[in-house]
Amino acid sequence: MIMERLPLALAALAISGSWSCASPQVANPEEQIAQALAAAPEDKAEGARILGYAADGSVVELRPGSNDFICLASNPARETFSSSCYHASLEPYFARGRELDAEGATRDERYRIRYEEMDAGTLAKPVMSAAQYILDGSWDPESNTAEGQVRWVIYVPGATEETTGLSIIPQEGGPWIMFPGTPGAHIMIVPPGDE
After folding, report:
1. What is the pLDDT of residues 67-77, one digit of tens each?
2. How far are the Cα atoms of 3, 103, 166 from residue 130, in angstroms, in the given order?
């Protein structure tokens, strides 16, 4: 599945131009575009807006988009590889999370603050059923390919186990609801692990 995305990622690199990065710790833009597209559904990849990381750690646009999808390269400051693609309505929520992370907020604080801001109307809520695709695994810079597994997240602000019929207990290979009743409620679908 990942290898099938390689021609699409290489096509994106061909049209992206050429850049150089100031820091060897930050992947170059061409590589970041390929990383970001590794998580993309095939029908959304070509028109997706691509975000990546500058040498100072800030998030920058690497390629403008023409559809309702955004793909984000793996953060080079993290030890593990994880790229993500998501509906554009989720960007304010994720951007605020990145901002809070840069300020040193813990994971729980990031959720709490964003939920409070959404409830207060100062942070936009995701649209109902906005989707996110996350590829967790490893990145091979020599071949510009990722190995790993995609998991799916479908945001359903305010939804609960009662309103959806979903369990709040993680279901390997099946859907379950995480953070029910909050502005960040979402349905998780995690494929079964390799045995």
Report:
1. 999 999 999 98
2. 26, 27, 17
Beta strands in 97-159 (DSSP E): 130-140, 145-155
The pTM for the full model equals 0.77
Sheet holding 186-189: strands in order across?
59-63, 49-53, 69-72, 81-87, 130-140, 145-155, 186-189, 175-178
Angle CA(170)–CA(175)–CA(179) in degrees, nearest 5? 60
Measuring CA to CA, which residue among 98, 102, 103, 101 is closest to residue 86? 98
| 17 contacts: CB under 8 Å, gap ≥ 6 | none
The DSSP code for 97 is H
Roughly how many angstroms between the first and final C-alpha of the chain, as a whole number?
18
The whole-angstrom separation of Cα 159 and Cα 45 is 29
Q: How many helices (H) and strands (E) does the chain have?
A: 6, 8
Q: Is 157 helix (H, G, I), strand (E, B) or coil?
A: coil
Alpha-carbon distance of 106 to 13, in angstroms, equals 35
Residue type at 137 in one-letter notation: G
